[in-house]
Design brief:
It is built from one helix and six strands, in the order ββαββββ. It has 87 residues and is α+β, with helices and mostly antiparallel strands. It has a four-stranded mixed β-sheet with strand order 1-3-6-2. The longest helix has 18 residues. The radius of gyration is 14 Å and the shape is elongated. The chain starts with a strand and ends with a strand.
């Protein structure tokens, strides 16, 4: 499960910080494809720690400055968060 804000995490154990990126995609990948890749990567990292829940703490996009793409900059979405094991 992915959560975006501090919810009731009673019964959950913090496992550590995780990071998910879309860096493995080609530059031609669409924004939704990058978003899904970063999200899936974040879930995979949480699972590797034995977790089933991740709370996203920060999201960033290196491809945009405001609303405009910057040429010659890698287009990457990055999520960082905390992985939890919840009952």
């Amino acid at each position: 499960m992915i959560i975006l804000d501090e919810q009731n995490l009673t019964g959950c154990r913090l496992l550590g910080e995780v990071r998910g990126t879309s860096q493995d995609l080609d530059d031609d990948a669409s924004y939704p494809e990058r978003l899904m890749a970063a999200r899936n990567n974040l879930r995979d990292e949480t699972s590797r720690l034995g977790g089933n829940t991740v709370m996203i703490k920060h999201a960033s996009n290196t491809a945009r400055y405001g609303r405009y793409e910057v040429p010659e900059i890698d287009k990457m979405i990055i999520f960082t968060g905390h992985a939890y094991s919840c009952k």
